[in-house]
Amino acid sequence: MTRLFYLLGFAVAGTLWGMPAGAQSLSSGDYEQCSVYSPDGEYVGLSTECLERNRARIRHYQDIGSGNPSYSARPAIPAGQRFRPIPPIQSCPLWANAGQGYPSTVSTGPHGQFFTYFGTFDSMVNGRRCKAEIHFTPRYN
């Protein structure tokens, strides 16, 4: 019975430990950072703008930590602008390996380097992407 009590106690403590903290207040370091002094070194008061920035920063991190679904770190992007359109891939021409295309192409860079790309291309050197098509030729009798 005592084991059950301890197990229940640990479960409750673990649940409470994992809960996000409530409204956090500014620390003494935040107030010291926002202190305003006169040119002769006398304390004048606190900067309200600095305090508001610090409070907004705390709220920002609390929103992120709470997993609030209404909060998003990135701005919302309209649905039509989320992805760039993919250009259509043309069929491989008949002269490119009888319409099957070549399995790779080699292109040159601006400084004379060679880059090899694998896929289906219409030429073995500086080729463009294409999709393989099956071309049937009629039989001649």
Automatic annotation (TrEMBL):
Keywords: Signal. Residues 1-23 form the signal peptide. It comes from Kordiimonas lacus. This is Uncharacterized protein.
